[in-house]
Structure formats: structure tokens, C-alpha cells
Structure to design on (373 residues):
């Protein structure tokens, strides 16, 4: 297990009367790709700026490799930042842009030349040293900004929504480039984004934030498949979030119908929230001639679905169909590779392992923090 490189201890930060971070605690491991994910105003960029030294916390400490760096200037920290707007010097060549930090450190010309070649090769832009930023595409500019950061050999690379200005195809290409760079460089990446797909694609660890609080910490798979609360479930991908009742261990009542599940220790007859991902909703077609009485008398509850409804909307998404099904007063979102036309009567089943049970929050700001050692 990698050691903790950065520890944020009881960090609070306000701008006037606006509390942005409230007693935040977070550790970041060496060689980890950690993403701070959340909506605008959740505190993720402020967290990054505090790590980078561009902001100071009102309360709390920033510990870097065992040393308190809370009040240390940004240029004294072993990290570099890549911003969304690149911040390249338009009057300088690409080589001079990359060399800028090294010249300030008074490195030798031979050392700088070697580093420029190394960095351009690393970002797949060999031979671009004599060109100027205005001649580059958005994706190429972003690669140069990253090259300029990595030649300084930081222990940590901070990336503040660096792909936000790129179009979809370039953004996807750069995601894979960043994954490759992380593996080749062996340094810690701390990445800020509001894009769930970016976070799920690139991260070792995702920190979901909202209103200055950490809502959940975990691997992409954990965040997606086992959300801690309704905010996380709704923010990370599409979800059906349904107010339900936990009858007892391994049995939950959803929209008046009992479903077997695998969760335990929620109590008996307790109000809960249920999360079911659209791709986990299983549908069966119900022939028009089948009556409600025949469905009710069927010994096998899965044959015609535990809940019956009608398809109300249909969109073809390329890899699947996206459908809405009105059933028991709830509009279900369903993703399926099988086509169910609008107006089709269907039954809904869900595998017990795909029903995620969550406690209902006691308040809007209730923290649900799951830190995995």
C-alpha cells in the first residue's frame, strides 16, 4: 500500500460569509490519480488551490510528505499546476515555454535541452520546439502545458479542469494521454473536474464533493456501484432513486411491491432510498392478451415482472436504447440493447445484487464519508 503523500487536516475556508470548505479531512497516496469531482461551487477548486499554495485555509493544516507546508509559497512546493486556459506565453517558442521554469531555477543549457526533448517526446510532440503556441490546436497546447509542468520533476501534478476547453473527441484522446503519462511518470495526479465520465475513466480514487463537504471517497467502481447517498447516485451517471421501505434483512418494498435484495442491518420497516441503475432494470414483454388477473395469479413473480408498466418514451443511443417506463406511478429510466416500442406493456425485474439500499439523510448537509484505508 502506497504511503500518504498529502494529508489535509480539518481544512475550513470561507470567502466572506460563504463557507466553501467545512472541516475537510483527506489524504492522498503517493503515485495515486485522485479526482476531486462535484458541481460548481462544491469546493473542489478551492481544495486544489490550497494544496498548491494559491490559497490559505482559515483553519487546518496541509501536510506534504510529513512536513507542514500550510504557509509555504507555491514555488517552494514540490508540485506544479496545469490550468484549463494553458497559460502559455504566446511570444515564446514551445521550447522556451517548456524551459521557462528551468531557466528561473538557473539550470544549465545542456540540462534544459535534454529536458525539452524528453518532455516533447513524452507528450508525443517531438519536433514542435521551434513553433509558437498560436500554431497549435487546443489539444496540442494542453500537452505543452503538461510538458512545461513535468520538466520541473514535481512529486505532484495538479490539474484544474484541464480538458474543459476541448471538444469531445480531443477530450477523450487527452484522457488516455493523461492515464499513459501517469503510468510513465510515476507521480501523483490530483485532478479537478465536474465531468463524471472523466473521473470514472481516469481515476484510481474519486472524491465526490458537494456544498463544501466530502460526500464519498472510493474507486470508480465503488462510487458507481455503491453510492453512499442519493446525491452521489444522482451525480454519478443516471439512476432510478426511489423512496422505499426496508421490510427486513434482504427484503425491500419498492413502490408497494416486495423485492429480494442482499442488504442487511437497515432495521425493519425502515424508510430507505433505493438506487437502481438504468442498465440493471430487466424488462419482459407482456402480451396484450394477458390480463392483470393472470399476472397476479402467476406462481413465478419474475415471469411477467414484479412490477408492470408501459413504455412511454424511446431514444436510440447507438450502443443501447434509452426508454422511460411508467410503472406504479414512477417513471423508470431503462437502458437496454433490446427494443421495447412506445406503448408496449412490460414487466420489470431487478437482480437482488443490483438493488442498492441507502439510508435516508437526516438533513440536506448530512455528511456521508466513506474513507477506505
Amino acid at each position: 500500500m502506497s504511503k500518504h503523500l498529502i494529508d489535509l487536516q480539518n481544512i475550513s475556508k470561507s470567502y466572506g460569509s460563504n463557507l466553501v470548505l467545512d472541516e475537510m479531512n483527506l489524504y492522498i497516496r503517493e503515485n495515486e490519480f485522485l479526482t476531486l469531482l462535484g458541481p460548481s461551487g462544491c469546493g473542489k477548486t478551492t481544495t486544489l488551490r490550497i494544496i498548491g499554495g494559491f490559497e490559505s485555509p482559515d483553519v487546518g493544516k496541509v501536510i506534504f510528505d510529513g512536513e507542514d507546508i500550510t504557509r509555504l509559497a507555491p514555488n517552494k512546493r514540490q508540485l506544479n499546476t496545469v490550468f484549463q486556459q494553458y497559460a502559455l506565453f504566446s511570444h515564446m517558442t514551445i521550447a522556451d515555454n517548456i524551459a521557462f521554469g528551468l531557466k528561473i531555477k538557473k539550470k544549465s543549457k545542456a540540462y534544459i535541452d535534454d529536458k525539452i526533448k524528453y518532455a516533447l517526446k513524452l507528450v508525443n510532440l517531438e519536433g514542435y520546439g521551434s513553433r509558437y503556441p498560436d500554431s497549435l490546436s487546443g489539444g496540442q497546447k494542453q500537452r505543452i502545458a503538461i510538458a512545461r509542468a513535468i520538466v520541473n520533476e514535481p512529486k505532484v501534478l495538479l490539474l484544474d479542469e484541464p480538458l474543459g476547453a476541448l471538444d469531445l473527441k480531443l477530450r477523450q484522446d487527452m484522457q488516455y494521454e493523461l492515464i499513459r503519462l501517469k503510468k510513465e511518470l510515476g507521480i501523483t495526479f490530483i485532478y479537478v473536474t465536474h465531468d463524471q465520465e472523466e473521473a470514472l475513466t481516469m481515476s484510481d480514487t474519486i472524491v465526490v464533493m458537494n456544498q463544501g463537504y466530502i460526500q464519498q471517497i472510493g474507486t470508480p467502481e465503488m462510487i458507481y456501484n455503491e453510492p453512499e447517498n442519493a446525491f452521489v447516485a444522482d451525480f454519478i451517471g443516471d439512476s432510478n432513486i426511489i423512496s422505499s421501505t426496508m421490510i427486513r434483512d434482504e427484503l425491500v418494498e419498492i413502490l408497494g411491491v416486495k423485492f429480494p435484495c442482499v442488504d442487511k442491518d437497515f432495521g425493519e420497516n425502515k424508510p430507505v432510498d433505493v438506487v437502481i441503475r438504468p442498465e440493471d432494470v430487466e424488462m419482459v414483454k407482456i402480451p396484450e392478451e394477458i390480463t392483470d388477473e393472470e399476472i397476479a395469479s402467476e406462481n413465478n413473480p419474475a415471469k411477467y415482472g414484479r412490477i408492470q408498466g408501459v413504455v412511454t418514451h424511446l431514444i436510440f443511443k447507438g450502443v443501447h436504447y434509452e426508454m422511460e417506463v411508467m410503472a406504479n406511478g414512477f417513471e423508470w429510466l431503462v437502458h437496454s440493447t433490446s427494443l421495447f416500442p412506445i406503448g408496449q406493456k412490460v414487466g420489470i425485474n431487478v437482480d437482488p445484487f443490483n438493488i442498492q439500499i441507502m439510508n435516508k439523510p437526516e438533513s440536506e448537509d448530512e455528511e456521508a464519508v466513506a474513507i477506505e484505508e
Observations:
- The CA atoms of residues 244 and 293 lie 25 Å apart.
- The radius of gyration is 25 Å.
